[in-house]
Amino acid sequence: MKAVxxxxxxxxxxxxxxxxxHENLGMEELVRQMLARVxxxxxxxxxxxxxxxxxxxxxxLTSGYQLxxxxxxxxxxxxxxxxxxxxVKDIEMFSMCEHHMLPFFGKVHVAYIPKGKVIGLSKxxxxxxxxxxxxxxxxxxxxQIAEAIQEIIQPQGVGVVIEARHLCMMMRGVxxxxxxxxxxxxxxxxxxxxxxxxxxxxxxxxxxxxx
Length: 211
Prior knowledge:
The chain has seven helices and seven strands. The protein is an alpha+beta fold. The protein folds into two domains: about 15-60, GTP cyclohydrolase I, N-terminal domain (GTP Cyclohydrolase I, Chain A, domain 1, Orthogonal Bundle); about 70-205, GTP cyclohydrolase I, C-terminal domain/NADPH-dependent 7-cyano-7-deazaguanine reductase, N-terminal domain (GTP Cyclohydrolase I, domain 2). Helix 1 (about 15-35) packs across helix 2 (about 50-60).
């Protein structure tokens, strides 16, 4: 199994805050320069606070680099005598394309078949956020989520499907407003056609009633 690419470097909270503040100042200056280069006046009223806002926004949107999957899960693994498929569908996802730094967004569907352990359901969306809050390509993110779940839970298998719309295709380039990308990653027992097909059919199934 491939190792999940994570940042193992630890820094004290105060030092990390100081470092981030210093980095934000550098980011703010870059934003001011960018505004000037596109023909704007960074000193006009409507743009005075824009560099600071953009720096804070980028810090949040790329906060996944500071997180590790194991830290997000903590101790939320439980011994359960259950070996059927567990699915969490329609996890909302927002990320940024690493090619143009424009957003892509959509839904993530995650499934696994336990092997003695289950994970707290709320931890699956948090695992998605660890990888979504980075500069990404959808294909890599799909694999990273699946491999992280496989490594942490050690289930019989994992399936991940992401459906997303990319603003780099919608507002520039080919400008196709209704196109979407679908990617999948299947590990372990999910590589078997019957398990894969069951997962995909349940993902496609529309909810007949609301909760």
